[in-house]
């Protein structure tokens, strides 16, 4: 669900009755209800006032949950054009109250969200249904809908558009790729730098397949099965040999990470493999730095 502090902030619609002078309420008893409905139409999640007041909260990556990214659920029971209760498989990711949803061509709002249904539904509603090339505001009519029809969460359109922009910034090469539906997107984006720094390593392939397909891959290094002639150049890695000067640290845990030269930050490379061996009673470590899959050298060296 979207961050709970969206729901906990005091809204004008909740305190409007106490802000209007008594003499106005005596002469216009329905004026308070009129203002309340007006602010409900502006303060619903994704509405004008809501976006202005909560923009900083919207831009938090923690809001990018799987339910928000997919933005839909499934109608579990058929409804008629007069039904005011809508049963669905799940309501996770929808606002607690006065959210907007869309079934087929009909936009609907509701007064309360429960675990498996929306109650107090107002049918044939109108609202924003797209943020694509232009903002699209639609007016709709009530109609019947069959079971298993997709239910779209219109209250998260702004967050979904923000997600698209974030992908172009932090996930080059994956900006137009649909990530796995159950992926914890906010954690993946927060750690995207480490993912790109570990390119070519087994760990990077594991992360990539998890992000795209939700599976743990079995990575086979075909280079170990090649017959190499002495004159041929099949090397895709560079070897670094060293001794460990910090006994409290385990160099073998560096696999999948980027190493950088202490006195020259422009010299770095991703460790695809690490091994330990002993010679003349001294312990040495060997790092294999990933270079690339073609004749060009992807390692930066000074």
What count of helical segments does DSSP give? 11
Count of folded domains: 2
The secondary-structure class comes to: alpha+beta
Task: Please mark out the parts with pLDDT under 50 across 5 or more consecutive residues, or reply none.
Answer: 1-5, 294-299
Number of DSSP E strands? 13
Mean pLDDT: 82
| Global outline | elongated
Rg over CA atoms, rounded to whole Å, is 28 Å
Q: SSE order in H/E notation?
A: HHHHHHHEEEEEEEEEHHHHEEEE
**Proportion of helical residues:** 25-40%
Distance between the termini: 48 Å
Any overview of this molecule?
With 302 residues, this protein is an alpha+beta fold. It folds into two domains: 5-158, no CATH class; 232-290. The chain has helices spanning 5-8, 12-15, 22-27, 31-43, 48-53, 55-58, 66-70, 157-170, 185-190, 192-197, 202-213, and strands at 72-74, 86-87, 100-103, 106-109, 112-113, 117-119, 122-130, 136-139, 150-153, 237-242, 258-261, 264-279, 282-290. A hairpin with a 5-residue loop joins strand 7 and strand 8 (136-139). The radius of gyration is 28 Å and the shape is elongated. The two termini are 48 Å apart.
């Amino acid at each position: 669900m979207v961050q709970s502090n969206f729901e906990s902030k005091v809204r004008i619609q909740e305190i409007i009755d106490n802000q209007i002078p008594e003499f106005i309420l005596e002469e216009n008893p329905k004026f308070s209800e009129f203002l309340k409905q007006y602010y409900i139409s502006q303060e619903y999640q994704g509405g004008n006032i809501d976006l202005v007041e909560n923009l900083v909260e919207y831009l938090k990556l923690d809001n990018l949950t799987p339910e928000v990214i997919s933005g839909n659920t499934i109608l579990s029971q058929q409804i008629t054009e007069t039904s005011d209760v809508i049963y669905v498989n799940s309501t996770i990711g929808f606002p607690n109250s006065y959210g907007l949803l869309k079934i087929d061509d009909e936009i609907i709002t509701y007064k309360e969200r429960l675990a498996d249904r929306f109650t107090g539904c107002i049918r044939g509603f109108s609202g924003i249904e797209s943020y694509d090339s232009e903002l699209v505001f639609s007016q709709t009519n009530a109609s019947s809908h069959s079971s298993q029809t997709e239910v779209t969460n219109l209250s998260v359109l702004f967050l979904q558009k923000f997600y698209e922009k974030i992908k172009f910034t932090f996930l080059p090469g994956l900006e137009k790729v649909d990530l796995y539906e159950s992926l914890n997107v906010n954690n993946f984006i927060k750690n995207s730098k480490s993912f790109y720094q570990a390119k070519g390593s087994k760990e990077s392939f594991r992360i990539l397949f998890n992000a795209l397909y939700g599976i743990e891959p079995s990575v086979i290094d075909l280079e170990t099965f090649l017959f190499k002639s002495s004159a041929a150049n099949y090397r895709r890695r560079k070897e670094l040999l060293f001794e460990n000067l910090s006994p409290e640290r385990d160099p073998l845990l560096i696999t999948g990470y980027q190493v950088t030269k202490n006195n020259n930050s422009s010299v770095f490379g991703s460790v695809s493999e690490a091994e330990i061996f002993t010679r003349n009673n001294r312990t040495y470590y060997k790092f294999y730095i990933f270079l690339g899959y073609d004749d060009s050298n992807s390692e930066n060296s000074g």
